[in-house]
Recover the amino acids of this structure.
């Protein structure tokens, strides 16, 4: 189950299952950047914004319920509510070469199949 999910049109949420350093840092400096990249295509997105650490309250309970309904079985210590201000594409430098996306996918599928 993914820990980072879309909450609404402007926010992501992150379940803190065991991220004490992240939540401690966000309480000092709420600026956050989350990168999500497909392991096979090596493409994704960078989400930049500001995170608010929630440990109690109505919004905390609503988001905890959201995770439980999605099947989370882990205890969630905090929720980070992220106001996304900017979304940018993330693209591997492999695409600066002549290699096709199909070849990139094959390379990484072969790699992961060999590892597992």
């Amino acid at each position: 189950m993914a820990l980072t999910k879309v909450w609404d049109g402007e926010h992501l949420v992150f379940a803190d299952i065991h991220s004490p350093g992240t939540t401690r840092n966000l309480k000092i400096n709420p600026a956050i950047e989350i990168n999500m990249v497909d392991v096979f295509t090596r493409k994704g997105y960078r989400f930049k914004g500001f995170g608010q650490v929630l440990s109690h309250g109505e919004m905390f309970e609503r988001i905890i319920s959201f995770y439980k309904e999605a099947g989370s079985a882990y205890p969630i210590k905090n929720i980070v509510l992220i106001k996304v201000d900017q979304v940018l594409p993330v693209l591997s430098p492999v695409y600066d070469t002549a290699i096709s996306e199909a070849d990139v996918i094959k390379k990484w599928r072969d790699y992961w199949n060999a590892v597992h």
